[in-house]
Amino acid sequence: MDNNLSVEDLLKKEKKNSKKILMLSLVLLLLIVLAAIYSLFVGAARLEFSDLLRVVFQGERGMIYNIIWNIRLPAILTSLAAGMGLALAGAVMQSTLKNSLASPFTLGISHAAAFGAAFAIVVVEPENSTIFSFLDGVYLPALSAFLFSQLAVITVLTISARQQAGRETIVLAGIALSSLFTAGTTALEFFADDLELASVIYWTFGDPGRTNWNQFIVIVFVLLLTLFYFIYQGWNYGVLNSGDELAASLGVDSNRLRLIAMTVSSILTSVIISFVGVIGFIGLVTPHIIRKIAAGNQRQLFLNSALAGGLLLIIADNLARTLFRPIVLPVGVLTAFLGAPLFIYLIIKGRQF
């Protein structure tokens, strides 16, 4: 009888937790909508609600239309997609590596992708610094960013595969990779001409406001494919997170699954960075916030982390456009101010995953 009661209590607790997680997802969606609407009206130029109504219902064209349709709306939606992608990548890396400090930024993947883009601009195609746009027919910076991000992924996986490699070792390796690729980017800037230098600096200052509709579509396409894959494979990654021995007993190839996860996450990260530049700490901070509120299973963790990451980046972009109006700060500066203290806290706390 006591066993039956304990099982019933467990089922009730699980049902209550599921409702809490569902409520969290709905709240995040609502906050995203509200933050996105608010973002349309804030910036260097103040807009009124009547301006939006004239553009939407009366078909008014002109400066207001261009501000809404060609500047703010792409920036808002790109912030949403980029934040979702970076947070999803961070949640996946933390789960697969079982390391609470793992993220595209702390493992050096973001810096490797930025170096790859800079390498393509300065070395591969020095005569054309706008090749990052699909409208030019060639997308070498994205390809180069992906290849160098894969180099960082292979290095991290090689280190993590060592039997005695602890989580501190992996993070230290990521910091070393970040320093290495940052130094490489600085060296490229030193040898670049003015036009190339301006293009390289683009990658080091994360800013969703520089994107257009074509670039947004590419980010969303890769994001949706990645999100679908990790939600579809959520059970397998839940087993992997429980330990390699349990995964092997259930027929899950942990090494293969981990390699696919890191590869897919780095693809998503490199595509985002190719368009918006380096945005740090979103992938590190967001999964910890979701775990603190309601983690759930791996599918729920991945989905809610993505939603929360999109919300955080929209809010950060709002602050970047309003704190020193009319000057617009790179959003990567604000995310660094947000994430750096938490990163230091996690190191000092020594929190186990």
UniProtKB/TrEMBL annotation:
GO molecular-function term, one example from the UniProt record: transmembrane transporter activity
GO CC aspect terms: plasma membrane
Top-level taxon of origin: Bacteria
Matches recorded under InterPro entries: ABC_BtuC-like, ABC_transptr_permease_BtuC
Transmembrane portions of the chain: 21-47, 67-93, 105-124, 139-159, 212-232, 259-282, 302-320, 327-348
Pfam family, one: FecCD
One of the GO biological process terms: siderophore-iron import into cell
Keyword Transmembrane helix attributed: yes
Membrane topology, as annotated: Multi-pass membrane protein
Main location: membrane
Family: Belongs to the binding-protein-dependent transport system permease family. FecCD subfamily.
Protein name: Iron complex transport system permease protein
